Amino acid sequence: MLFHVEMTVKLPTDMPGEVAAEIKAKEKAYAQALQQQGKWRHLWRIAGSYANVSIFDVDDNAELQDIIANLPLFPYMEISVKPLCRHPSSIRDDDS
Amino acid sequence: MLFHVEMTVKLPTDMPGEVAAEIKAKEKAYAQALQQQGKWRHLWRIAGSYANVSIFDVDDNAELQDIIANLPLFPYMEISVKPLCRHPSSIRDDDS
Amino acid sequence: MLFHVEMTVKLPTDMPGEVAAEIKAKEKAYAQALQQQGKWRHLWRIAGSYANVSIFDVDDNAELQDIIANLPLFPYMEISVKPLCRHPSSIRDDDS
Amino acid sequence: MLFHVEMTVKLPTDMPGEVAAEIKAKEKAYAQALQQQGKWRHLWRIAGSYANVSIFDVDDNAELQDIIANLPLFPYMEISVKPLCRHPSSIRDDDS
Amino acid sequence: MLFHVEMTVKLPTDMPGEVAAEIKAKEKAYAQALQQQGKWRHLWRIAGSYANVSIFDVDDNAELQDIIANLPLFPYMEISVKPLCRHPSSIRDDDS
Amino acid sequence: MLFHVEMTVKLPTDMPGEVAAEIKAKEKAYAQALQQQGKWRHLWRIAGSYANVSIFDVDDNAELQDIIANLPLFPYMEISVKPLCRHPSSIRDDDS
Amino acid sequence: MLFHVEMTVKLPTDMPGEVAAEIKAKEKAYAQALQQQGKWRHLWRIAGSYANVSIFDVDDNAELQDIIANLPLFPYMEISVKPLCRHPSSIRDDDS
Amino acid sequence: MLFHVEMTVKLPTDMPGEVAAEIKAKEKAYAQALQQQGKWRHLWRIAGSYANVSIFDVDDNAELQDIIANLPLFPYMEISVKPLCRHPSSIRDDDS
Amino acid sequence: MLFHVEMTVKLPTDMPGEVAAEIKAKEKAYAQALQQQGKWRHLWRIAGSYANVSIFDVDDNAELQDIIANLPLFPYMEISVKPLCRHPSSIRDDDS
Amino acid sequence: MLFHVEMTVKLPTDMPGEVAAEIKAKEKAYAQALQQQGKWRHLWRIAGSYANVSIFDVDDNAELQDIIANLPLFPYMEISVKPLCRHPSSIRDDDS
């Protein structure tokens, strides 16, 4: 089941560089593991921002919550979630 | 080059049923042709709405404008556009 | 799986009374049937408005879309959807 | 009498972990006691967020204020309140 | 129990004068009857607008809904509702 | 002359408790003195918040500014002001 | 006593030209009479719009309401009102 | 002197095609004449919309108002205006 | 050429009193000098706030920027700017 | 390919002067280099603000992201991006 999640990162501007770098590294590893598992199906950067649009493929709302709430950058993010489903005009079988 | 486009359809409530049906049929054919060409890469319904999230793969802004402005439902839509690019944490090669 | 849906009804003010009454009757029957099936778990009126907060219990996003899009009042509604899941502090076993 | 309350928690990102943990523990105990009393009827997590939707069953506005204002996390919350009442299409007797 | 209700009237600009006058007359009679009953405690015009701020004194949310939904001008209003209760700094005994 | 003022208090979450308590005490004394003078006619708590709705009875805009700007909590408040006047449907002589 | 009023005119696009012209003529006469009386102290066009910023000098809120509500274009306007008073840094004696 | 103007066109969906075509033709001629005069320095389409971003080079606010208010599509537009001036980091001499 | 500028001051609540006082004194001197020069034509306090509405009379956008950007309180302000011009219904010759 | 980017700078008010000056100097050098390369085609100050409107000429979304994300002031900016393309009424050949 797919969810559209937009995440905007707002790190405190006075956060020491190395602390930020460490969190980002954890975030990258976390995101790549989930992509390998097929949970995090798409991850795009919104050009001109520090935000992304992601498409998650999860079993249910609870799994979505678990994945999002454990993002290392979660405390520094503004997040909006939209449940997706198959569009009647979609010709793709693998997109829902 | 990818663009994230969210389209919310607001048909006039007093539009005759057959007129609406005709426009929707044209829209479907239009959307499916573009999907077959690979221009309209993803088309999802936002659950609980008459809106969709789409990912377009076009050569440039002009082609995006041409595709969007010629949507049969264009006059009845609220549309927001976000340019996308590859996210540094994405593991997919085919997603930008 | 639970979804929180807020629906605000905005009927055209020039809609003939009997037309409105007919749609509302269909809406009521539709809503009560879904409540009997357990799909529409809660339906509350927001006091001082023509809006409701509902909790749906559905299998997935697609079923939510199917239920919402077929509401007789759907063309006259502003709708917002939030996916819900179990809260770690909830003591209820039957609330997710 | 029912109230729909949406609470979004925004803890300061520089709050020490143990301080946050202590407040959260108090919050959980506070919430569970009220649920046992039947005051806090529903408590759901909005998936993909640090927010909840709750339904309170209180005698009047004053009691709602007393409960909300004494939430340990109250100083760190954005809160919106909507008074609820029975919906004419609801088939449930115990839902208002 | 007190509720703060702000009502903004938006009559269709093409509504015939006499139709508008009739609804307004019904609205006035309805409002004055409720004021006499003590239900509608305060009714002020927001200067420079076609809106009012009202304070209702009702038994519960359901009674508020009943009063508001039956306002003759209800279909032409944007309404916001806030539950009120006694302020700890208020010196008035009769204001909650 | 009446003014509708909504005040939302946002104290810094890292403000020491005793500092906050002191300001609140001053605020209460200030508010109660003005109520005794008849300037601060109504003071209600918006249930579920740290905000109030107040009705001030002042000679003119300048007096309103003087009262509001000297609130001890003024630096920590979001404030909105609406000028009120007698509503044509009000049956009260003492409410404008 | 001064009030800052911003008015945005939104005439129905299907209003016959002569009807619009007639209302605008009435509006102009109404505005110029009030300016001559000194009630409508300033009237500026916001460049690039069909909106104005006006400064009214009235005895109280009720007079402001009377003037605004009787604007011939009132039913077609979005209006926002801000009460003004003398600024402590103003060097003008005639500006409050 | 430069002004940044964003214009979003919202034609009534029930406007007859030929009426719309006529207004658009007038708009195009009007826009191209002003471009030839150097008043309308830049005119870009916002991709995926029926909106444009324009840069006007005018003598003052009054001239801007005159140009904008006489756009054939003016009654069907939402317009926002921002005054521009030379940026201290700009290397262009001809861009203010 | 006139510009309507609304300025809302938001000083950090932890700014030492004497630092704030010093900046405010500079701001007052700066504002009064510009008023004497005729550049800052009107300066009103919005009653119930720490904000002002000002009307500037400047040669062009660049001069407006220079004046605003050099306000001592500039770093602590939210500012909105609207270009003004003569209203066709204004009877004043000196108001544009 | 052109992009319209609006950037609003919000430096922390407690940032030491010399730190701010250093970042601004880097920003200026960065901006001027890109202007010399033709990537940063227009850079205007929005009068009365610490914001700019810029037009970038880049090969694709990815290049836009690279340029924006590496702005020295990027962590202190609110940024909005709009893809542009040739307007059908534009008479300029070099403006898309």
TrEMBL record, chains A, B, C, D, E, F, G, H, I, J:
SUPFAM superfamilies: Dimeric alpha+beta barrel. Belongs to the muconolactone Delta-isomerase family. Its EC number is 5.3.3.4. Residues 1-89 form the Muconolactone isomerase domain. Coiled coil: none annotated. This is Muconolactone Delta-isomerase. Pathway: Aromatic compound metabolism; beta-ketoadipate pathway; 5-oxo-4,5-dihydro-2-furylacetate from catechol: step 3/3. Keywords: Aromatic hydrocarbons catabolism, Isomerase. It catalyses: (S)-muconolactone = (4,5-dihydro-5-oxofuran-2-yl)-acetate. Homodecamer. NCBIfam families: muco_delta (TIGR03221). InterPro entries: Dimeric_a/b-barrel (IPR011008), MLI_dom (IPR026029), Muconolactone_d_Isoase (IPR003464). GO terms for molecular function: muconolactone delta-isomerase activity. The gene is catC.
